[in-house]
Write a structure and sequence with these properties.
Oligomer: single chain
Keywords: ATP-binding, Ligase, Nucleotide-binding, Ubl conjugation pathway
Number of helices: 25
Protein name: Ubiquitin-activating enzyme E1 family protein
Pathway: Protein modification; protein ubiquitination
Family: Belongs to the ubiquitin-activating E1 family.
CATH topology of the largest domain: Rossmann fold
CATH architecture of the largest domain: 3-Layer(aba) Sandwich
Organism: Toxoplasma gondii COUG
Number of domains: 4
């Protein structure tokens, strides 16, 4: 009966397809005015519509849901609505005969997926054998944020890692904790989850959606530091598909490197407001993620940030630097010094730059002095009154002294060497602001700063504003005397270019220069003074880690107050606290509609990736979308970048030769020699490629340089793996990646070889 009903259903589909094809041809032949028609009807397309129109699967539902939800939002007048209609299909995802054959005997697992199964529509599209393979898949989702949550939900709904024999598995990792600001777009989390691990909470939530899901939640960072412990070679080799849900390029490039090394498919995606993209990375078929470079992020020039702001974004970024430099980075140094003074000084001396040593030691001295009596220098724990005094001095330095110094160096009538006014737009001449305990803006800053200093010294918070105001009003502020200083006015300097962390806030103007001998003498005196400090172990120094979502911790209060005062200095229109929080907290605009749409597209590519070895490159689609316009662009992934011979290479400053010709990042030279030494590896390469090996390296470490006699004497006969473990301080890897620099024996031309994979046996 079952077989008969299935045959009848197939016959009905065929009949419906024939009927639709007939009607479509009649419409096309009629060619009536106003009717959309084509020159030739695609019979296969019409047949697919007839056969699968009733099938509803999670990826397509997510895509359509995201698009439609954004169209509903557009009724408010925000963004451009969709004009006409949108047609989108993914018929290329249907299995080819080769893919069906690779999955095994047709119908073998049909009884496991009945007509009442939650996967019935997916089975109707791809077959029971495919669903069985999807259930056995091992997928690794990196990140459990907005995209990560939706991708985990999609995997659970599709049945990835949900096989009846529990052979499949989904692994997710994320170091972050759930914040209040996550709740409006990460729907696996609720208010009661705030403060808990994202990965663990997300895993528990999706398991309630599909109890068959085999999922492992980790809280470890995917990086070099976990290669020997958590994300080992065995871990990566056990995975079938890697899905990125990351928010920074460095992490994406690292995961991409792992996928290239272990030959794993990677699904890469990202969103930014209404914009989103999907990239499919397949071993030996496509480019890897790192082959295509993203444009660099825009940054505010350092001198604009320090001296010449002209937008509220500049003052907020400056205030955020303030927070990091004064309340976190500066406090971390005395903490390290207190733990082991001698070791800290030895490490500091190793850096070699006297000005850096002097600057850090002076900051340590200043914070240590907060734990000493001003007269006797005996141990005396700081009081909250001292924190208020320190906050007032900080205010005066930032908003009066430094501004006065800038105006002293560049008066309002100052002219450049070209004869133009120095203070010409976009530069805004500032006005110093002296501390006034009765001024609300001044008081807001001192309240926040004094409580953050109190946190630094392990003291309880004081929220009585009137008490802080009374203490601040009694602080005697020393008179400021300007100095003759050189101030950088070059807008080409970048904010993260030079100087210690927080320098753009704590010391925006350079110190008076000293001779090397004088600086060395000052540094020696500071070291001696600090080493003689009594009761150092009793002192408490607690760095403040910036947290934007706690409105009671004074973090956003400090940044907003500092930004507002800085804006008042430069007559820049101020903004509200919420805008300060968005910019200072670096809250990336993410909306549920874009996330759902991109998740749907990633999930469609994942369904294809299960059988990627039996598919053609044109079956896969990279996507670039913008729901605001609206715009959807799909393209085939680019093939791998090939290394070819060149008559002139700008890096080598001469010709280069590729061996083998046209290799890509996916190609490797595998060396399976037990206990392989440097000499054996060199001989192996020389024999196989007829080259002379000049340099062998691992990452940034040079293992062997044939031009250095000491390397030939001490390293030539040593084991490659032992040498790597000694140089890089890592161990436990079953294979290591070695790069080579070689030249042809015949004519000395530089030769490029693929990465060498040395097996550790």
């Amino acid at each position: 009966a079952g077989a008969g009903s299935q045959q009848a259903a197939v016959a009905a589909c065929v009949a419906e397809a024939q009927r639709l094809n007939g009607e479509a041809k009649q419409l096309a032949e009629r060619g009536e005015q106003g009717v959309v028609f084509v020159d030739q009807v695609d019979e296969k397309l019409v047949a697919n519509v007839a056969a699968y129109a009733q099938c509803q699967i999670s990826p397509m539902a997510a895509f359509v849901g995201g698009v439609l939800a954004q169209e509903v939002v557009k009724f408010t007048g925000k963004f451009s609505p969709l004009r006409g209609f949108l047609y989108m299909d993914a018929f290329e995802a249907l299995l080819s005969p080769e893919a069906k054959a690779a999955l095994g005997e047709t119908g073998k697992h049909r009884e496991k997926y009945s007509i009442d199964s939650r996967y019935a529509d997916q089975v109707a599209l791809f077959g029971s054998e495919f669903q069985h393979a999807l259930g056995r898949t091992h997928a690794f989702v990196v990140g459990a944020g907005a995209l990560g949550c939706e991708l985990l939900k999609s995997l659970a709904l599709m049945g990835c890692g949900c096989g009846p024999e529990k052979e499949g598995k989904v692994t997710v990792t994320d170091m972050d904790r759930i914040e209040v600001s996550n709740l409006n777009r990460q729907f696996l989390f609720r208010r009661e989850h705030v403060g808990k691990a994202k990965s663990v909470t997300a895993a528990a939530s999706v398991q309630t959606m599909n109890p068959d899901l085999q999922i492992v939640a980790l809280e470890d960072r995917v990086g070099v530091e976990t290669e020997a412990t958590v994300f080992t070679d065995d871990f990566w080799r056990s995975q079938h598909i890697i899905v990125n849900a990351l928010d920074n390029i460095q992490a994406r490039q690292y995961v991409d490197g792992r996928c290239v090394w272990f030959g794993l498919p990677l699904l890469e995606s990202g969103t930014l407001g209404t914009k989103g993209n999907v990239q499919v990375v397949l071993p030996f078929m496509t480019q890897c993620y790192s082959d295509s470079a993203d444009p660099p992020e825009e940054s505010i020039p350092l001198c604009t940030l320090r001296h010449f702001p002209h937008a509220i974004e500049h003052t907020i970024e400056w205030a955020r630097d303030c927070f990091q430099g004064v309340f976190c980075d500066a406090v971390s140094e005395p903490n390290k010094f207190r733990e082991n003074p001698q070791k800290y000084l030895e490490r500091l001396r190793g850096e070699g730059i006297l000005s850096v040593q002097k600057d850090r030691l002076e900051k340590i001295r200043d914070l240590v002095s907060q734990w000493q009596d001003k007269e006797t220098k005996a141990f005396s724990p700081p009081s909250f009154e001292r924190c208020v005094e320190k906050a007032v001095f900080l205010f005066q330095d930032l908003f009066f002294n430094q501004i006065s110094q800038l105006l002293y160096s560049f008066p309002l009538d100052h002219r450049t060497s070209e004869g133009t006014l120095f203070w010409a737009p976009p530069k805004r001449p500032p006005t110093p602001i002296s501390f006034d305990a009765n001024d609300p803006a001044s008081l807001d800053f001192v309240v926040a700063a004094s409580n953050l200093f109190a946190f630094n010294f392990g003291l309880p918070a004081v929220r009585d504003v009137s008490k802080i105001q009374a203490i601040a009003a009694r602080v005697a502020i020393p008179q400021f005397t300007p100095k003759r200083l050189h101030i950088n006015t070059d807008d080409a300097e970048k904010p993260n270019g030079s100087g210690p962390p927080g320098a753009s806030f704590a010391a925006p103007h350079p110190s008076l220069s000293l001779s090397a001998e004088a600086e060395e003498e000052v540094v020696a005196g500071l070291e001696k003074h600090l080493l003689a400090t009594a009761d150092l172990e009793k002192m408490v120094f607690v760095p403040v880690e910036f947290e934007k979502d706690d409105d009671t911790n004074f973090h956003i209060d400090l940044v907003h107050a500092a930004s507002t005062l800085r804006a008042m200095n430069y007559k820049i229109p101020c903004c509200d606290r919420n805008k300060t929080k968005i910019i200072a907290g670096r809250i990336i605009p993410a909306i549920a509609t874009t996330t759902a749409m991109i998740t749907g597209l990633v999930s469609l590519e994942l369904l294809k990736t299960v059988t990627y070895k039996q598919r053609k490159l044109e079956d896969f689609k990279n996507a670039f979308a913008n729901l605001a316009l609206p715009l959807w662009l799909f393209s085939e992934p680019m093939p791998p970048n090939r290394v070819v011979d060149k008559d002139f290479d700008p890096v080598a400053c001469g010709p280069i030769r590729a061996m083998p010709k046209g290799f890509s990042c996916w190609d490797k030279i595998q060396v399976d020699i037990p206990g392989c030494t440097v000499q054996q590896l060199c001989e192996f390469l020389e024999e196989k490629f007829d080259v002379e090996v000049n340099i062998l390296s691992v990452g940034n470490f040079c293992l062997y340089n044939s031009f250095l006699p000491v390397h030939k004497q001490q390293r030539f006969k040593r084991s490659i793996v032992e040498l790597i473990e000694e140089v890089t301080k890592t161990s436990g890897q079953k294979s290591v990646a070695v790069e080579s620099s070689c030249s042809a024996k015949s004519d000395g031309v530089d030769v490029l070889l693929p990465t060498i994979c040395v097996l550790n046996k």
